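Class, look over these structure tokens:
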Amino acid sequence: MDIDKREECRAGSALKMDMSFGHEGGGDFSLPDYLPEIQRLLYVTPSVLPETKFLSGNVLELGGTLTYSVLYLGSDGKLSFSPLVCEYSADTALPVTVSDVGELFVDCEMENTSCRVTGPRSLNIKTRLRSRIMSDDRVCDDNTVLCGDDKNAPLDLSVSVERLCSDYDSVVRCQGMTTGSATGEMSAFDGEEPLSCEGSLCVSYCEGNSDGVLVRGDVYVKCLFMSDDGIAVCKKTKLPFEITVPVRDIALPSSARAWGRVASVSVTPSETGGCWTVNAEYDIEAEALCGREISLCRDAYSTEVESSCETKECEILGAVSFGSGQLSVSGDFDLKNAPEGCSVCDTESSVGQVQVINVEGKLYATGALKLKVVYGNAEEHACGEYEIPFKYELPLLRSPEGAELQSRVAPSVLTSGAKIMGDKISASSELFFSFEVLEKKRARFVTAVRLGTEKPHGAVGSGVKVYYPSSEESLWNVCKRYHASKNRILKVNGIEGDIISPGKPVIIF
């Protein structure tokens, strides 16, 4: 189907494929010689950047970048940081051929990461990844093709085809990706040196238009600085951005969502002095959702000639919840093995796998925030690991009762912080979610009506017949049995809709 004409021919999405497979990334890394040797590893935080995809036959090849933030206690007794980068690749055979694949969506998530110190400046890091692959098929209300025995429908007979149609709430989703950068400033003090810089991306506004998806938001940047006296200081700022993500085949979207990852953050001394110039580069993905109602032909027959139907089964997708939102989470934890007179130096957080659950007709995104807190003084440092469970209610476009759902949630951590209060650590974070929940409705619809050359057997023809229907018969079944025009029967008998009274005679021409 020509997608550009889908406003003339109402189109929706059917689920073609939804599968996932696991693969591994990482490898052996060596720290630069100018960095001190590793005395004690505090944390390794991984992130995965958007993947590229390539289809060869029915094999999907994926490739992307893994980045690691390594914070450790060096042989000089001070905190040291090193960013590490590697590429990953994987491939898998699809259950459908390339010609059958429609719009293709790929989500790559990290399941777990393990790190082992193999030498004074050597690390072995392995990350288990899981890629989810989805594909949409397009269905529209003129999918039915009329054809004769020679695959060409006689034009004078095509008007004799009766159709039984049902309406379905559906969507067309289109996705795109682009890169951008944001720049700002951060205050500076004499003697400070940047140790680590990281960022996360928050989308505050999305709107689809003819050019794509207009996205506004902020890049939240966290930088760890080391002062002359060996005390680590964490500073935060946010950099606003606005960008248009090109989306293929977009047409009058009813809503849109966007999510992204910060690829790199750098800080350099400002030319004016007294501050640092902060630059963040990011990758951002956007999806436009075009809601619509489509009418599919569930059955058909000809009033003039013998006919047969070719049908297809599919799962029509309709929107239940779509958009983005924020959630604040917090928790208090016991402080163990803390150096005397210590304070919080740094916090590092990530969100594990998120599940969508249905509780009494309400949908929630549930999971846990994984938090690492580095605390210490000028002489000693330690790292504590904690988890904060969360439950975020998704706003509904319609009730999900009784529907089979397909969900996608892209979480990220905007800000995180912690402070020591007596023998406790009080931690808090701000989370951002971009989410999509679609319902799947199974449907069988007619893809082709084959018209023969002979008169249909059992047709009333030019005569008149009086029929007494049973209690389980519909008007459609009666008309199809006698190859009669439904509109004509409705008009002659004064029947409304498809309901006929059992035992009441129906006059058939």
